[in-house]
Amino acid sequence: MRSRYTAFATGDAAYLLHSWHPETRPPAVRLDPTQRWTRLEILATTGGGLLHTEGTVEFRAHYTHSTHSGVLQEQSRFTKVDGRWVYVDGDTSNSG
User: Where is the YchJ-like middle NTF2-like domain (predicted)?
Assistant: First the structure.
């Protein structure tokens, strides 16, 4: 999760696609260069250990965009594919 947040913060769309599950991956990721990600809070996790094949991460990602700031909160699902963790999908809420 932290590496995907870093990819959003640095504008690395290629990494976001690479770390997305092949069955749910969009054809492209369009990042808004005027949106600045400022902080990540991990709220809860399940699974995700060495012997697990699935896991979840609940987080809050803080951002600024133009003249306002906001928070994206998501419960993300991850799974292992070929020995590496990939993002499957998530339930989100936005404030701001």
Answer: 1-90
Q: What is the 3-state secondary structure (H, E, C) of 16-54?
A: HHHCECCCCCCCCCCCCCCEEEEEEEEEEEEECCCCCCE
CATH number for the domain running over 2-95 = 3.10.450.50
What are phi and psi for residue 89, nearest 5 degrees? Answer: -170, 180
Q: How far is CA 37 from the centre of its chain?
A: 12
- State the pTM of this model: 0.90
In angstroms, rounded to a whole number, what is the distance separating the alpha carbons of residues 61 and 14? 20
| All structural domains of the chain with their residue ranges | 2-95
Amino acid at 1: M
Cα distance between residue 71 and residue 73, in whole Å? 6
pLDDT at 17: 98
CA 70 to chain centroid: 16
Per the DSSP assignment, residues forming a β-bridge with 55 are 47, 78
